[in-house]
From TrEMBL:
Signal peptide: none annotated. It is found in: Cell membrane; Membrane. The chain crosses the membrane at residues 38-59, 139-168, 188-211. Keywords: Cell membrane, Membrane, Protein transport, Transmembrane, Transmembrane helix, Transport. It comes from Hymenobacter artigasi. Belongs to the exbB/tolQ family. Residues 99-219 form the MotA/TolQ/ExbB proton channel domain. It comes from the Bacteria. It is a multi-pass membrane protein. This is Biopolymer transport protein ExbB. InterPro entries: ExbB/TolQ_transport, MotA_ExbB_proton_chnl. The lineage of its organism: Bacteria, Pseudomonadati, Bacteroidota, Cytophagia, Cytophagales.
């Protein structure tokens, strides 16, 4: 009987220890984002700089375009009302009080009144081109970033592979310690380059769409302005 108890006790102890290990919470294997970025090495510096630049351009251009959009319908209604009354000075003052690309276009046309309509139209179009160029400022940089960020990430991939083979050649061994560090560089830089490229690519096309909508409104308003001049 005593022999049987001696056999049961160790078995029970093993069962309890196994259950305790199974019940214990898993170790936290998550890695902070900063640590991951640091693993990418020096190649992460230009990628982080490009990401900051992309976000800055997207935010700055969005608010610039939004402020420039204004309310073209209400503005043109005010211009029409003043022009019907023959209040040219009031129309110029109304444009000066409205800091928008459309107002600057119309003001240029008002200052050319007395010249042939074709020349007025040309002046308005020239101002419109300048205003559109201002709205598109720095948007092309996003297109450049969208192209070069993944390429810089690919350079990091090559550096990571070189580090792997260098470690293997130096230690004459092939194992996790020799591969892990190079894989960190390879994967982190590739992922970061793609993410930065996607952000810049989306921002470029999104802002381009906003500018196109703005151009469409400005063209319609310019046509309306020329109609007002012809009617008066």
């Amino acid at each position: 009987m005593s022999v049987f108890l001696l056999q049961v006790v160790p078995a029970a102890a093993d069962t309890i220890s196994t259950a305790a290990v199974a019940a214990a919470p898993l170790a936290d294997t998550s890695v902070p984002v900063i640590d991951l970025l640091l693993r990418g090495g020096l190649i992460m510096i230009p990628l982080v700089a490009l990401s900051i630049l992309s976000v800055y351009i997207i935010i700055e251009r969005y608010f610039t375009i939004r402020r420039a959009a204004g309310n073209p319908e209400a503005f043109m209604a005010g211009i029409r009302s003043l022009m019907v009354k023959g209040d040219l000075a009031g129309a110029k003052l109304y444009c000066a009080q409205n800091a928008s690309p459309l107002a600057r276009m119309v003001e240029k046309g008002l200052r050319r009144i007395g010249l042939p309509l074709k020349e007025i139209e040309t002046s308005v179009e020239n101002v419109g081109k300048i205003e559109i160029a201002r709205l598109e400022k720095n948007i092309s940089i996003l297109g450049i970033i969208a192209g070069i960020a993944p390429m810089i990430g690919f350079v990091g991939t090559i550096i990571g592979v070189i580090k792997i083979f260098y470690s293997i050649a130096a230690t004459k061994e092939f194992g996790i310690p020799q591969v892990a560090d190079g894989l960190y560089v390879k994967l982190v830089t590739s992922a970061t380059g793609l993410i930065v490229g996607i952000i810049a690519h989306v921002g470029y096309h999104w802002l381009s769409i906003l500018v196109e909508r703005m151009v469409f409104r400005m063209e319609n308003s310019a046509i309306e302005f020329m109609d007002i001049l012809q009617d008066n």
